[in-house]
Amino acid sequence: MSPAIRLQDVAKVYRTGQTEVTALHRVSLDVPRGEFVAVMGPSGSGKSTLMHCAAGLDTPSSGEVIVDGVAIGGLNETRRTELRRERIGFVFQSYNLVSSLSVADNITLPLRMARRRADPAWVAELVERVGLTERLHHRPAELSGGQQQRAAIARALVARPAVVFADEPTGALDLRAAREVLALLRRMVDELGQTVVMVSHDPAAAAHADRALVMADGRIVETLLRPTATELATSLMGAQEAAFTMAGES
Ligand SMILES: Nc1ncnc2c1ncn2[C@@H]1O[C@H](COP(=O)(O)OP(=O)(O)OP(=O)(O)O)[C@@H](O)[C@H]1O
Questions:
Q1: Total domains in the fold of the chain
Q2: ipTM
Q3: Any idea where the ABC transporter domain is (predicted)?
């Protein structure tokens, strides 16, 4: 079976006027199905660019991105949008729920956008798993940050995507709510076989992953399997020092 996501020699160069920034240097990566992958690295190391390219939100300057067996470079914008809707779920730091819709309608929104019928048993299971059965008719503003993020996770999973990309999903949460959200993502991987790719600055968050990729200067410089928070903090410090040295030399 093809990996959930494959990047082959993906490079991204941003050009503004005369200046060029290489945000990704020919990165290759396979994310197997059912794996929880964390992407870490200092500010500016290319985490967001990697995620945006892998999710079809940005176009690589060269190389190939294959999502759920489909090479997205060959798709036009309409087909790419469809593929994102059908095969990719997103969780953002700021939840991005629609304030005028109930929790229930927020969770099923991706299905309506894709003109797909909701499977009531699956929606009920998801709502139960994220612990929001009692909150379905509330508006997002009536929920805590942790509850809003759990609603966003249910929304990301409702269309049974091949992969969920989570961008700093605990960045706006207190410690307890953050732990609940991370434990929930972990359970979604363990119990539902969901593939998750999470960008995070936080070693304690990335320690929930099966594999952590540490980036520096647009490259994956280290891969840690079942990492501890201490190992990740050490690795991140190394990447930060390398980034400072490189900045000093340029
Ligand atoms: N739209 C853009 N135009 C020009 N340069 C960009 C653009 N987006 C990102 N960059 C540059 O590409 C490099 C990688 O940026 P990226 O946002 O991927 O890093 P990051 O690791 O996600 O950083 P952070 O942790 O601060 O969000 C940086 O040098 C950044 O300035």
A1: 1
A2: 0.97
A3: 5-242
pLDDT of residue 244: 74
How far are the Cα atoms of 21, 22, 49, 223, 224 from residue 66, in angstroms, in the given order?
24, 21, 16, 21, 23
CATH code of the domain covering residue 60: 3.40.50.300
Q: In angstroms, what is the span from residue 218 Cα to ligand 1's centroid?
A: 9
User: What is the extent of the structural domain holding 38?
Assistant: 5-249
Q: Cα–Cα distances in Å, from 129 out to 124, 177, 215, 248?
A: 9, 15, 32, 48
Q: 16: Cβ below 6 Å to ligand 1?
A: yes
As a whole number of angstroms, the distance between CA 12 and CA 22 comes to 6
Q: Phi and psi dihedrals of 38, rounded to 5?
A: -105, 140
171 Cβ closer than 6 Å to some ligand 1 atom: no
How far, in Å, is the centroid of ligand 1 from the Cα of 217? 10
Kindly report, residue by residue over 101-152, the tens digit of the pLDDT: 999 999 999 999 888 998 999 999 999 999 999 999 999 999 999 999 999 9
Q: Which of 25, 27, 49 best tests ligand 1's pocket when mutated (most atoms within 8 Å of CB)?
A: 49
Is 158 in contact with 107 (CB distance < 8 Å)?
yes
**How large a percentage of the chain has pLDDT more than 90?**
90
Give the predicted TM-score (pTM) of the model. Answer: 0.95
Q: Is 244 in the pocket of ligand 1 (CB under 6 A)?
A: no
